[in-house]
Amino acid sequence: MSRPLRRVIHVLTASIVAVFCGAVSASAAVSWDAESKDDHIAIRGDRTSPGSSGGAAAGPGTSTIVTNCVPMENNQLRCYSYDSAAPGSAVTAITVDAATGPSAAAIAASVATEFRRLPLTSGGIVIQPSRGWTLVNVDTIVLTDPTPATFDTTILGIPVTVRATPTRYSWSFGDDTPPLVTTEPGAEWPNPTVTHAYRTSGTRTITLTTQWSGEFRVAGSPTWQPIAGFATTTESAPPLEVRSATNSLVTAS
Prior knowledge:
The model is unreliable at 1-28 and 51-60 (pLDDT under 50). The protein is mostly beta strands. The chain folds into two domains: 3-102; 107-243, Immunoglobulins (Immunoglobulin-like). The chain is elongated and about 90 Å long. The longest helix has 19 residues, at 3-21. The chain has helices spanning 3-21, 104-115; strands at 29-37, 40-48, 62-71, 76-83, 92-97, 126-128, 133-135, 139-143, 149-155, 158-172, 180-182, 195-197, 202-204, 207-218, 225-236, 240-243. It is 12% helix and 44% strand. The protein starts with a helix and ends in a 10-residue tail after the last strand.
């Protein structure tokens, strides 16, 4: 264990002892220890009831576990605790001072890096008409599913939930026109919002690049925090045949 992390644990343990002493019965004895692994700090307080022989508790042993200590601003750590002797008990949060340790900026940077590695999948490409071909000079409708994606992962040993939301769409229609960039995911006929009219016939491939923004929250916390930067996904639809059509007059029979 590095010297800075030892200092964090020392200060953290002392702070948690001070916080929990008010919640522990004066007649109960509490011993504390701490350990770290992969930048994750865990503090355990073992509470023993008096009047038992050999220091053993008269009833079932009681332990208070404090985990998920997240570096915050102003040299503080936000820790989430639960009582292992009370299954289903609510997770409570406390804030304690720390002399050093991973900064909030380091946590945020790690989350941003992990965000771009998540296995995001775009919402698919829907083309209307859906017959596999379209006509020159007629609007072809495109759309995608804008549903956000949620992932549970671990950052620096801390369990977090990451939520990714599509925010921008870049449509390439496989011809000589520039990509169409929009914040609209598109809509079905008869009220389409993203369309394209081909000017020449041929086989075209429509490609969608989606930009995702992200936010995360630490396990046990109700607060979502923004993630710096964006993630992108790219998907192509099956080849689309663009056909020419001509008008002609015929004699009515």
